[in-house]
Model the fold of this input.
Amino acid sequence: MQELAIRRKAMRSGQYAVSTSLCADKRFGRYKSEVAQPVRQADVTGTELERLRARREMLRSMTPEKALQVIGFHKGLNFFEALELAKREGKLIVPNDVHDRILNETKDEGYFKENYPVWTGTLVIYEKPDKPFGKKVNFGWRDDNSLKYSISFQVPEQFRGKTNCALIVEHPDFERVDLGNNKFEIRATDEFHLIEHFPKKSGLYMPDAETKIPHGRKVKESSDAGYLLRSHKAYLGSLVRDHIYWNDDYGRRYVHTDLVWSYDSGVAFF
Done:
């Protein structure tokens, strides 16, 4: 229990972004620089994109028990590695709403303890509280050698000026592009989900109907609520689902939207 509490504390972005106990510099050393690409749209198009989207909808149509039979978990991957594996093997990274149903509608505690936390295919983009979306959202952190890493996303015009909102893009509708010099960019298709009234602080909130991401007004208690963890700054990254096995009340409903991409976690693929 103490070890898990320490891990959860380290996962918070306010601490983790400046901490490099997970050796971000070592992780990123495996990625080669690429020539910057001016095109902002994702390269996954046509038949491949349609195939993965169809598999995403197929997975969503399954019962949680059936979904557990067809997805496979991998351990010890950062989110860069998860995206590369998915692209290389033509796999879908399981979205948050599917994990939400598995965690809340099945009861195999041993399975949860073995496989969670996990990166999801649900990418979350938000600005710091009360700051409206501008042309671009930037998320960055430093390693032990004070080397800076950054990831950016060019905000579509229709969302610029919106405040206290979050943009959601589901895999495979986005990809990571290496711009060199430890800088990366997210390119996406035109499929977005806007969550309005995105919380300014971490806490207990009711889930968005489509994405199952906690939002709206803070609640004191509810069997349907989820516990959102968010950064006090801008963020761009994968939502992580956790299972806190010693917390019977909200153990299955921790929703992290604050982790750096070099964090090692499990990943579920379909």
In short: The longest helix spans residues 46-61. The chain is about 25% helix and 30% strand. The helical segments are 2-11, 13-16, 24-28, 46-61, 64-70, 79-89, 96-105, 109-115. Confidence is low (pLDDT under 50) at residues 1-40.
